[in-house]
Amino acid sequence: MYNVLICDDEKDIVSALKIYLSGEDYNIFEASNGAEALEIAEKNDIHLILMDIMMPKLDGIAATAKLREVSNVPILLLTAKSESGDKVLGLNVGADDYITKPFDPAEVLARVRSHLRRYTRLGAMTEEERGKVWTCGPITLDEDAKSVTVDGESAALTPIEYNILLLLIKHPGRIYSSEQIYELVWNESAMGADNAVSVHIRHLRQKIEINPSEPRYLKVVWGLGYKLEDNGR
After folding, report:
1. Tens of pLDDT, residue by residue, the chain (233 residues)
2. Nearest C-alpha neighbor of 114 from the set 65, 169, 74
3. I want to staple 132 with a disulfide (CB 3.0 to 4.6 A). Which of 51, 108, 143, 217 is the partner?
4. pTM of the entire predicted model
5. Which residues lie closer than 8 Å to 95 by C-beta, 6 or more apart?
6. 142 — phi, psi (to 5°)?
């Protein structure tokens, strides 16, 4: 049984989210502002929070920042399309994801399931328990088991794809040129590196990105190289 906290000052929104989640094994807690959410999270073992941004007393951004001081529980922001700047701010202070109103019930369920899987597998572990496990958004690489999962589902990578991902995920945000990737992964001089690396990057994207043509995590930096970066989506 997972404890899910829904925090929104609009009762209709809370009721709708409860209906979406009603068929799952979730125990639902309710809050109408950030202050109430903090109090509930302090007194209960909450596994995931759906948090509205615009609320009285304490808004979702401030509540997220305070929660991040003491907890790594997944926080999904509930946002309107007009709140794009607030989405970025929320992700910067520690939110894991956001869902845009009006909600698609299937999307809500998929996001909640995905974040709960990642949290229960890795999020609640201590650093010592994690060992050589690396994450970037929904991507998890277990270096000891030589396994990669995306949203909890196994991704079958070739050894070259695995080693490229390992290099990039261990250094998030760092840009590696094709030559650097080739030399570090192939352990050879970088002759003809561009074509070889670009092909493997394309195949890797097909396995770890939801939409490989618009990658969220494995990015090209034109004229410089590639990087792996968690941009919150």
Report:
1. 899 999 999 999 999 999 999 878 899 999 999 999 999 999 999 999 999 999 988 999 999 999 988 887 888 899 886 666 777 777 777 787 788 888 888 888 888 887 787 676 555 554 454 558 899 989 999 988 888 999 889 998 877 789 899 999 988 889 999 989 988 887 666 665 667 788 889 989 999 998 888 899 999 998 899 999 886 44
2. 74
3. 143
4. 0.58
5. 51, 64, 75, 76, 77, 232
6. -100, 105
